[in-house]
Structures are given as structure tokens and as C-alpha cells.
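Postdoc handover notes: sequence design on the structure in folder B. Input C-alpha cells:
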């Protein structure tokens, strides 16, 4: 009617219509006139109740006074229900100037006069003076028009959604997650040519086994939920520059989205909470982190805990209401690069167990001509990931076939000199490579079990006890001059220095307090290390104790009697005793 009135040369229709409605209300209380929103270009026409909602703003008569909720058009247009949490949010449409804009807001914010003022940052004119009226207006419009407002499903993460499909590839699914992840969500898309990406990927697969492994690990990420496997790391490291580590990471990221560093690929320069939230947001898609050295402190020590991400469960945090927030979870592969290994020699067995460390050397580059490859990947990406999950969940029997192949590979790998967790990660990578090779590449370069096994840590390398024993043996050799022996026990100068214990034959009696301090400084648990040493008969004990008494400088003290390597063996020829 507004448009028709303008064609007739009448431009004051809304104002006249409003005066007409007011006159009817004043003339007789028995006459009811519907009061609707009268915003120009409004997405919906809603029952405004007692509110006067037009282009001049939103007001309501309260006795002799007029209450203003907002000086410009704003209205709810859609109700969103999160599939994971059941939390409802409202999509608000508002207009300042000529164009309508939209934002998604939590209902807890719209229900609080203290919180709703945060919308001012998004351009909605709400102040501490108008907040209470604004909250009441939004509540009234939603309640009066509940059946008119369309309700849609929403999601705040990526990955598989039971009963729906794989986010973000579900048609009609709305993203309602945190604004900080909106850009990351937008990077998971298709761009460029599917054939050009496949051509580049096949070229990279022919450059090195490492390139095939990290590409397969990217495809393996959505399989972990299907297989019931745990999250794991694939870490490319090397002191030499120009080996193609970052480009290889970009290749893995290009399976799903924009592989540029800062887009889908992130760096280690983040807090623990930041890494945790990003992993939970990606959920079943791989988390790609570049440059481990950014996580080091001023002393060169890495401030990154593998356990924090490898567990797949975030920290349980309390909230102001006295309860706890929803604990974030994820099940994906974490693909990383750096100049040093991700775990140190003193790291726990669980941390070493969850990492496949791959050294990249200058004479064995992961990817050659990195600039050309990186340029191609930045222009063509995102097609393979969508095609992979569509086939995985769309082909009848595909999931069961994946599980059967995985179990067979896991069984065979477990029979080798590696741990179950390492075998679990390797089997998942091999299954993913088998699927991707058959579906997309057909290049005859499918990863073999022997090629994959070469990157796995042995049981001894994983064992914290074995690494702790080797460290103690090295420590004894390094500090041998501080141990009493038959030759130096009468040396007055030696007695004036620090004594760590006694060396007799192939046994090192280490004073108990010295042993505990040494093990702790190296990052090992003294109690756990003693337990492992006793189980493997590498310490000589007294009864149930894990120590033995020894007289040192005339004082009887408790010592850890460590059996050194070579006990009972003849020395090799040509080596000085």
C-alpha cells in the first residue's frame, strides 16, 4: 500500500495510517486494530502488540510517557536451534540507513538488560537507558509471533553430525558458532578447479613418501570417528630450511579449504585454550599448526603439551552460575611442522606414543619447487574433502569396508616392534591413503605397510622407563669423577667435593636424594622410574625396598643400586676399558 500510495503521489501514507489507528483506539475501546511492524523493506511483517514499530523507531506508550526501545528498525526474523546443544538463538534483522543487516544473538543476551548493550558493537543502537525496553520489545515480538518465525537447525562446529551429515556440506544448515570462528568456517569451501588440484596433489605424491603420508593423514582425520580411533599427531621436523615442510602442510590443508597460513593453517603462537577451542571447532577435520618454534620460551624450551590435544577432550571449566560449561571434545588428526621433534627424550610414554615424528632432511626434500606448488594450492582447494566424505557416507557398505581393512592393518602392525597407539595411527593413515588412491588418484603410489612402519617409534623408544634408564647411564658416565671408587676413596681432595655415590664393578650406588633430584630435573617421575627399573631387574634391591644401604664416607645411607650396561659381558676388542 505504501508503494501504491507513492504511485498516486501520496508520500505520507504511513504517518496517516498511524494517526488513523490512534483515532480508532481513542474513539472506542471495543474496536480492535491489528498493530504490525511497518518497516520499509522488512523481511517479515510481525504483530507488534503495544509497540509502535516503524521507520521512525520503536516506541510504546506507558501512561503519560513514551518509552523508546530502539531509534531504528530492528526485529527477530528467524529462530535457530543448535543440533549439538539444543541452545536457541535469534537472528535479528536491523536497518540503519538504506540496507538491512543481520546478526545471530544468544537468547541469554537478548533476555538480559546488562548483556544486550553488547549489541552496540554490531551497530544496534541500544544503550543502558533503552536496554530494558529493548529486551521487552524483542521478547514481546518473539512470543506474539512464535509460529510465524521460521525455525532452522544450526551448528557451531565442523565435522560429522549424527542424523544430518557432515558440516559444512549439509544443505540448509546455519552456522551459529562464535564470531571468532566465522572466518575459519568460511575457509572450508571449494575454489578453483578440482582437476587442477588433483594434478598438483599427484605431482606432490610422486616427490616423497613423506608427502603421501601427510596427505593421507589429512584424509584420515574424518575416519577416526568411524573407526573409534584416538587423535594423533603427524609432525614434520628438520633443522634445514627449504625442505618443503610448510608446503606439505598446505597440501594437507588444501584437501578441506584455503591452505594459506593464517586461513585454514594456523601457527603454534596461541594459548592452550586457543588450541583446544580450535580443535573442538574443527572436530573431525584436521588441525594444521605451523612452526613449532613459536611455542618456545626465552630459554628455548617448548611450551606445548601433546597431551592437551591428543586426549580429544578439553578442560572442564566452571561458570558464574555455579555449574560447568559444556566440555569440548574432538577426534581428529593434528598435523604440525617445526625445526625440532615435537616430544623430548624426557616426555611421557603417552606423549611419544601419540606422535609420528618424521625428520625432513635437505637432501630428501618433502616437496620440491615449493613456490609453484604453493601457488597452485592457493588457487585450487577444498574439492577433495567434500568428495571424500560424500563417498564415505554415501556409498553403501563403505563404512563397514573401512572398518574391516583397518582391523586387518592394525593387527599386522601390532605384531611388529611398535605400540598399539602407533599402530592405530598408522593403520588409519594407510586406510585413508587406500581410499584416496582408489577414488581420486589411481597413480600406483599407494602407501605400503613397510613404508609406513619405517616412521613408527619402537616399543623401547616409546617406553619412558627405557629412556629414563638410558639417561641415568649417560648421567653416571658424565659424573663418574664424583663417584667414590677403590682408586679415589683415599684421595683427600676428592672427599672435599660433592659425592654422588659409589661405583663398584658395573653397579652405581646413587644416593637416594641425588637420584630423585636427577630424575625430576630430567622430567622423569622418580617413583615410576624406580618401579620400571625393579620390574626389569636393572636395580639391586633389599627385600621389598627399592634401595640398598651403602656406607659412604663413613655414613650408612640409602642408595639406588643401578646395574650398568655390559654387566657380565666381555669388552669389545679395540676398546679401552
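Designed sequence:
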Amino acid at each position: 500500500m505504501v508503494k501504491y500510495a507513492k504511485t498516486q503521489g501520496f508520500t505520507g501514507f504511513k504517518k496517516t495510517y498511524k494517526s488513523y489507528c490512534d483515532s480508532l483506539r481513542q474513539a472506542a475501546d471495543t474496536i480492535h486494530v491489528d498493530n504490525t511492524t511497518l518497516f520499509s523493506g522488512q523481511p517479515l511483517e510481525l504483530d507488534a502488540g503495544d509497540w509502535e514499530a516503524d521507520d521512525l523507531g520503536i516506541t510504546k506508550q506507558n501512561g503519560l510517557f513514551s518509552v523508546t526501545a530502539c531509534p531504528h528498525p530492528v526485529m527477530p526474523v528467524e529462530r535457530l536451534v543448535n543440533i549439538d546443544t539444543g541452545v536457541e538463538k535469534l537472528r535479528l534483522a536491523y536497518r540503519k540507513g538504506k540496507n538491512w543487516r543481520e546478526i545471530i544473538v544468544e537468547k541469554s543476551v537478548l533476555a538480559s538488560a546488562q548483556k544486550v548493550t553488547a549489541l552496540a558493537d554490531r551497530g544496534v543502537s541500544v544503550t543502558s537507558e533503552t536496554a530494558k525496553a529493548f529486551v521487552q520489545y524483542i521478547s514481546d515480538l518473539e512470543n506474539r509471533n512464535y509460529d510465524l518465525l521460521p525455525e532452522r537447525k544450526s551448528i557451531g562446529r565442523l565435522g560429522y553430525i549424527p542424523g544430518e551429515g557432515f558440516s559444512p556440506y549439509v544443505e540448509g544448515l546455519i552456522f551459529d558458532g562464535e564470531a571468532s570462528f566465522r572466518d575459519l568456517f568460511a575457509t572450508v569451501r571449494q575454489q578453483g578447479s578440482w582437476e587442477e588440484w588433483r594434478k598438483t596433489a599427484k605431482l606432490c605424491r610422486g616427490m616423497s613418501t613423506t608427502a603421501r603420508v601427510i596427505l593421507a593423514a589429512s584424509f584420515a582425520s574424518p575416519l577416526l570417528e568411524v573407526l573409534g580411533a584416538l587423535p594423533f599427531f603427524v609432525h614434520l621436523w628438520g633443522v634445514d630450511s627449504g625442505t618443503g615442510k610448510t608446503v606439505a602442510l598446505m597440501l594437507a590443508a588444501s584437501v578441506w579449504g584455503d591452505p594459506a597460513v593464517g586461513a585454514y593453517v594456523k601457527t603454534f603462537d596461541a594459548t592452550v585454550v586457543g588450541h583446544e577451542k580450535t580443535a573442538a571447532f574443527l572436530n573431525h577435520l584436521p588441525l594444521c599448526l605451523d612452526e613449532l618454534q613459536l611455542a618456545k620460551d626465552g630459554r628455548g624450551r617448548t611450551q606445548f603439551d601433546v597431551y592437551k590435544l591428543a586426549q580429544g577432550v578439553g578442560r572442564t571449566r566452571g561458570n558464574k552460575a555455579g555449574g560447568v560449561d559444556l566440555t569440548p571434545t574432538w577426534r581428529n588428526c593434528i598435523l604440525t611442522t617445526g625445526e625440532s621433534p615435537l616430544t623430548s627424550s624426557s616426555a611421557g610414554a603417552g606423549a611419544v606414543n601419540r606422535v609420528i615424528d618424521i625428520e625432513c632432511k635437505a637432501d630428501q626434500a618433502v616437496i620440491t619447487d615449493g613456490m609453484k606448488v604453493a601457488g597452485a594450492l592457493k588457487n585450487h582447494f577444498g574439492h577433495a574433502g567434500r568428495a571424500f566424505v560424500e563417498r564415505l557416507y554415501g556409498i553403501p557398505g563403505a563404512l563397514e569396508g573401512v572398518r574391516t581393512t583397518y582391523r586387518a592393518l592394525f593387527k599386522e602392525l601390532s605384531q611388529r616392534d611398535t605400540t598399539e597407539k602407533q599402530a592405530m595411527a598408522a593403520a588409519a593413515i594407510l586406510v585413508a591413503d587406500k581410499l584416496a588412491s582408489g577414488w581420486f588418484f589411481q597413480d600406483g603410489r599407494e602407501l605400503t605397510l613397510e613404508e609406513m612402519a619405517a616412521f613408527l617409534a619402537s616399543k623401547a623408544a616409546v617406553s619412558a622407563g627405557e629412556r629414563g634408564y638410558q639417561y641415568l647411564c649417560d648421567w653416571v658416565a658424565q659424573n663418574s669423577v664424583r663417584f667414590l671408587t677403590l682408586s679415589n676413596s683415599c684421595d683427600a681432595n676428592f672427599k672435599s667435593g660433592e659425592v654422588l655415590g659409589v661405583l663398584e664393578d658395573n653397579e652405581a650406588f646413587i644416593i637416594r636424594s641425588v637420584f630423585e633430584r636427577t630424575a625430576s630435573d630430567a622430567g622423569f617421575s622418580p617413583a615410576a622410574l624406580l618401579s620400571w627399573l625393579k620390574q626389569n631387574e636393572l636395580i639391586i634391591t633389599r627385600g621389598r625396598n627399592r634401595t640398598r644401604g651403602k656406607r659412604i664416607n663413613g655414613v650408612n645411607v640409602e642408595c639406588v643400586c643401578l646395574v650398568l650396561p655390559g654387566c657380565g659381558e666381555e669388552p669389545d676388542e679395540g676398546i679401552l676399558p
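Context for whoever picks this up: The longest helix spans residues 420-441. Don't rerun without checking with the PI first.
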